[in-house]
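Quick illustration, no need to memorize.
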Amino acid sequence: MKPFISSDHLYQKIPVGICWSSLLVYCLVGLMIQGFHNESFCSAPERGPLHLITILEDPISCPESVTISADSHTQEEINNKFESWINQFSINPECDSPPIFRVGGKVIDIADLEAPDACGGAVILEMEIQAECGNALCQSDFIVEPSSSEIAISLPIYDFTCFNTGAPPTYEFLPPKNLTRILALSIYSPCIDLQSLKLEIEEPAPVINGTEYHFNRKYILSNDQGIYSIGVETFSITYDVTPPILLGIPDDLILTCGTELPEWPEVQAFDGENELEITRTEKAHFTHCGGRYFTRIWMAIDDCGNTAEHTQRIHFEDSDPPWIEVPADTIIDCNGDIPVPTYEAGDQGC
């Protein structure tokens, strides 16, 4: 601290900050100019004694600037750090004049300042004092780096979904490609203005390998500030309209009445080189005349839902007429009773 003396006179005032050696020269020059009067040039004024003023080297103090990331801090944590930063603006206790605070050149009440939100922002605060204790100006910044502006698109992979009808698959048969669906599959910061987003789509020709069609749909999310995210949705589709092949299927049968049903024959099903499981069913049918026939069904389904089915009919043929046996002819007396007739009849069981 450097003390200085200020003395009022009828004609002159000693400049602030003059040192003791300069004071002596100043007084001598004043005596030469004005002459020697009853009232000395360097004497104290009539209205009071000399008073001391202390010039402080650091009358005010600003904290170091703070920069934090919104990605790693909650809003509550940002608020707490901001409050701590504000509390570090200080004035020397020997200086009794209040400082002035400015933001963007505008004088403000520091108690009204709020922390930037988690979407990013900055407060550039100036502190100034102009007082007998000294003139000083300092500045400190509180910066919140915005949260990540990227959008993580979590697109599903459609692996070998079958397509078994009509012409080969195209992009038109794939899931919708609107912005609402893409955002529903994405993770993004609440700071992003979704209304400003634009969706661009690229659909290159599919890569075809045999019956496999590979589609890669590219999504580009952007706004006027640039690209937010790029995602690629992959579709691997098996185009298969060919049903399985059944081997060893039997022909229809006509059996004689009374013959037992044959054993099931060995039938195999293949989808390309892959053998498939076969399901089989048997059902009896009855005719109006009391006859009957059987159907046997073999069915196989491949991974794309294509089916192969074969039905065998087994009929029973009745080539023999039914038979009947009656008693031999009989001669009885006129007065005799007619005997009760007896007979036996039969068929082959169809």
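Helices lie at 20-34, 75-87, 179-184.
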